[in-house]
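Standup notes
- HV: blocked on the assembly model, inputs below
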Amino acid sequence: MFNYIARRLLQIPVVLFVLSLVIMGLMQLLSPQQRAAAFVTSDKQIEHLDQIIEKYHLDEGFLVQYRLWASEVLRGNLGFSRISKEPVLTTVRKRFPASMELALAAFVPIVLVGVWLGTQAATHRDSFLDQALRVMAIVGWSLPTFVVAIWLVAWVYGGLGWFGIGRLPSSLLIELAGGDFRRYTGLFTIDGLLNGRLDIAAEALKRLVLPAAALVIVVSAGIMRVMRSSMLDELGKDYVRTARAKGLPEKTVVYKHARRNALIPVITMAGPMLGRMIGGIVVIELIFNFPGLGEWAAKAALQLDVTTLLAFVMLIGLIMATANLLVDVAYVIVDPRIRYE
Amino acid sequence: MSSRASLEPKRELWYESKRFRRFRRNPLALAGLLILLFFAGMALLAPVLTADRLPRGCMRDLSLGRSEARQALRNPTRPAFWRAAFAPPKSCYKIPRVSYSPVPKPPSARYPLGIASGGYDIYYGIVWGARTSFYIGVLVVGIVLVIATMVGGLAGLFGGWLDNLLMRLVDVVYSIPGLVLAMVFASIFGRGLIKTMIAIALVAWPIYARMLRGNILQVKAQDYISAAHAVGAGYGRLFFKHILPNAIGPMIILASLDIGAIVITASTLAFLGLGADVGYADWGQMISFARSWISNPGGEPLKYWFVWFWPSMAIALFVLGWNLLGDAVRDALDPRS
């Protein structure tokens, strides 16, 4: 097991290496001037692009360039983001908590809704409820995230005037910038509670509802479908018949016996689901005006800020690799039959 | 002669098979098929449906005058009708601009779905956008199949270190969320429909390459392959005549049904501003025109509902059609059911 984890940990740098090779390779399609931005660390340097091109040999071959870029990255310099007008790492540090807060707010409802609806569909197999849920899942799976987000903004926020967009109202943000509000975690909901500022926590929570709901609608459909089919598999197995035969109440059979085993395939889905969630967060942050990493990357893509995009993809690669490793470990904990060598 | 025919086992025609019957009785599959037929009809008849509002460049390229266009494009005996239906010039995909006003105008008799910000005729964009969506879907699936066949074929056929290397590449591409990677590729390639499609294809191929490799490994282990090899068939013949035809079927079917997912990615990229050129009839881009008119514009919520409603419904229904169909086909192909 430990060997397995160690080997997987060693694979993460390899993944990042290949990823950077692919993207740097494609970047050769750009002009040396555009690539030069990857080496700029301050606002002033932008004015001396020619010198940078010369200094970093940007008009030379791919291997020379890659080696230089990699040595900068290893020294902790991921480049300068034209979009946020500061070094990439500074922006990542500033914006990560916002995305994290959104992801956390969406994660629990996604799992609960997906697992619960999947269980209901399976236990009421072929009933009207099951059919309705199946249709709902396909519809949810078919809706592009940005369409859901726009519908929510237009109908719920615009039409009904409920909840809010943005992360906090600007009046509160100004107050936070000057006051003695301590940022323990960077998550406004939790920091608000820790600072005893319930109003801030409530405002932050209110503005998380719609973006999180958009993620729940799009992502939980997938979990529901896996949950339904794996629950049907489990309910057809012998141990369920035995449990029923010995007179256990149906509730115990379903929730204590079948559902626990049915959850195992759902854990496998965690990786793809996280991927879908990250893709969704990019678009949702842009539409809900939520100042996280996704919004930054979406704006960078539009401005062809390749430095920012490269750093963003590497970060996502790191997150996904870590998440997949955690999934594998969780697998062993949940299902003792599984052994890694 | 007749006695010999009766001795042969009765050949089951495809529409008599259990799989097809199960598919036909599935109401969801029929709904999906109907939705897609609706969009296909709209796409094919686009010149007819918009004969009275074609942009000037398009009429010029079809060498038709305005009044002439109305009749010629609605008359199947005229060559222009067929040319416009099957090979319209590129200029026909440009949404005609009614004005340059940034304020959208509500639906009217002349512009039944309204006018978007920038004076774009929404009806025209929706109708020709259906063509764009089919075009994107079919072409991306085509590119994906080519890449997947090459990578999966090489990996499955030769195995060894090449297999290992290619499958690690698959792992890496597969490990990054498709939308994020497509966004980066599209950003590097720059704006343009073809470039966007290449960016999406470069992200979508790994799962099919892996699928094909698996199928090839299965087929390779069959006796008839060893037999063919034993009678002296070379690698090329083995691969193209014996292995590939028997391994490629499921991949082609599943990849074609993935058009829904491809259109989601394509429209998202277009919404982000990484799609076709500005003004191209593309549903995702039409929603990005609507960006500033979505939430409570000018204190009148939902006043400009039409700017985002029609294109978003078009995308949602189009993808739904593909997914309903795809779900049913997957069920029918699943050997367990």
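- HV (later): unblocked. Chain A touches chain B through 54 residues (CB under 8 Å). The first strand of chain A starts at residue 80 and ends at 81.
- Next: hand off to the docking folks.
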